[in-house]
Write a structure and sequence with these properties.
Layout lengths: L3 H12 L2 H18 L6 E5 L16 E6 L8 E2 L12 E7 L8 H11 E12 L3 H9 L14 H10 L2 E3 L3 E3 L17 H7 L6 E8 L38 E5 L6 E5 L2 E4 L5 E4 L2 H9 L7 H4 L3 H7 L1 E2 L6
Parallel strand pairs: 1-2, 1-4, 2-3, 4-5
Antiparallel strand pairs: 5-8, 6-8, 7-8, 9-10, 10-13, 11-12
């Protein structure tokens, strides 16, 4: 069985070829563009791909670290990728340069990345495309292609894995539109990478996925079993009943008596039904007397004869007006 050191030695030899240098240069260009919008405190790269500072030098975070599972002097932290020795919710961005293709359990690594990433954290994944000439070369190579690659993951499948973990995945970017031939520099190489990326994406050798971790914050709502009722001062509850006298006419009227300087305030004391069934206001005796004194037609004389006590209670006289 091939050891980790021999795999890294074979990978370093492949990256030293013209095809490997071209592939690494395209990946650095894409990662630099992706990291232009990534800020925070800590960036983590899991897995060595080329020199130690191949991608970390483009980071805009305050700190950066390299994690690897082999005894490599270039790594800052040595641990298993499926059991990261990092606290949860402490990393702002993670880079996986072909790491999912070189470990035994890529699902466990994605779960660990989801654990250590903070809310709205960034994830950048580099992977080789299994379709096209690169997939055929990997299929017929005994040790995988490039050296040390255990598998190739389709872009659609990797996108589904990230979406199941709650990541929001942006559109992928493809690169390295060339045939997997190390000995010939010009064979299979298109003149412009941008033109081939737009019109011939199926011939690409790899792709980049940029995802962001989304966390939905749930706010508990207490059930309202009873609707509170408004209460006035003195704990008096408002009522929806309508008073029967709400539509009655005004119970006060003012008029001058005899055209003099005194004013008389007269009060309507009730409503008396008519003979036909309709209700009509009934004026008090002082009101009838005042009407006769002013020359208006009055009622019968019997209604005007009231006791002084009743007249004094209903009929109030105001002081004379000052001339």
């Amino acid at each position: 069985m091939e050891t980790v050191s021999s795999m890294k030695r074979n990978l370093a030899d492949w990256l030293a070829t013209p095809l490997g240098r071209r592939c690494l240069a395209n990946e650095q260009r894409l990662v630099r563009r992706a990291l232009d919008r990534v800020f925070g405190e800590q960036l983590l790269q899991i897995g060595t791909w080329g020199p130690a500072n191949s991608f970390l030098r483009f980071a805009r975070t305050q700190r950066r670290a390299l994690v690897d599972w082999g005894l490599d002097r270039q790594a800052d932290i040595v641990c298993e990728p499926t059991q990261l020795a990092i606290a949860s919710d402490t990393i702002d961005a993670v880079i996986l340069p072909h790491t999912l293709e070189r470990i035994q359990s890529p699902h466990a690594l994605l779960r660990e990345v989801d654990r250590v990433l903070r809310a709205d954290g960034q994830l950048i994944v580099l992977s080789f495309a299994p379709t096209g000439a690169w997939g055929i070369r990997h299929l017929f190579s005994p040790g995988g292609y490039p050296a040390g690659q255990k598998r190739m993951i389709r872009e659609g499948r990797l996108r589904d894995w990230l979406e199941l973990l709650g990541f929001e995945v942006a559109a992928g970017r493809r690169y390295c539109h060339t045939l997997p031939l190390e000995r010939f520099r010009r064979v299979g190489t298109f003149p412009k990478e941008e033109w081939a990326q737009r019109w011939l994406p199926m011939l690409s050798g790899g792709y980049l996925l940029h995802a962001q971790k989304r966390v939905q914050i749930l706010t508990p709502i207490r059930p309202a079993w009873r609707q509170p009722r408004l209460r006035a001062v003195g704990r008096l509850e408002p009522s929806t009943r309508v008073s029967p006298v709400a539509s009655a006419p005004s119970d006060a009227a003012c008029m001058r008596v005899g055209g003099g300087s005194r004013r008389a305030r007269l009060t309507l004391v009730g409503i008396a039904p008519r003979a036909g069934g309709a209700a009509a206001p009934r004026r008090s005796a002082p009101l009838a007397s005042a009407a006769r004194a002013s020359g208006a037609p009055g009622r019968s004389a019997s209604r005007a004869r009231k006791t002084p006590a009743v007249i004094e209670r209903i009929f109030r006289r105001d002081p004379p007006d000052e001339e």
